[in-house]
Amino acid sequence: MARKSCDGAGLLDAFRAAVANLEAHVDEINGLNVYPVPDGDTGSNMLATVKAALEEAEAVAGQPADRVAAAISYGALMGARGNSGVITSQIFRGMSEGLVGKRRFNGLDLAHALSQG
């Protein structure tokens, strides 16, 4: 049966998968960077940022969704590298704000949180 809502553990699992996917494609993302100069580190900076966010989130494993989202946001902010890292942290901040007070969330909640991000 398909899940109808997601808790903190599900959010953490999804974030782990997202970090692994970014890591698998970091070189491709580095190659896309062309503005303002082709410095080639956008993917590397984003990866360092989300790895810091994941480390913070792992520390609150088992907590409700809003707590995991807050940890992701905080970890990303504290571990932000370069402009792409700062932008990524701001997306997670908005998502965290969209999940405030949610022990569990559904697809509509996630859409709202992504919109906030």
Q: Which structural traits does this protein have?
A:
single chain; elongated; 117 residues; two-stranded antiparallel sheet; mainly alpha; 2 strands
Describe the structure.
The structure is a single chain. The protein contains six helices and two strands; from the N terminus they run βαααααβα. It has 117 residues and is mostly helical. α1 packs parallel to α4 and α3 packs across α5 (82-98). The longest helix has 17 residues, at 8-24.
Shape call:
elongated
How would a textbook summarize the main sheet? 2 strands, antiparallel
Please tally the β strands and state the result. Answer: 2
Helix residue percentage? over 70%
Strand order of the largest sheet: 1-2
Order of SSEs: EHHHHHEH
Give the strand content. Answer: under 5%
What's the end-to-end separation, in Å?
A: 29 Å
Total number of helical segments? 6
| Low-confidence blocks of residues | none
**Structural class, please?**
mainly alpha
Radius of gyration: 14 Å
What do the pLDDT scores average to? 93
Structure described in brief:
This protein has 117 residues and is mainly alpha-helical. The protein is built from 6 helices and 2 strands. The longest helix has 17 residues, at 8-24.
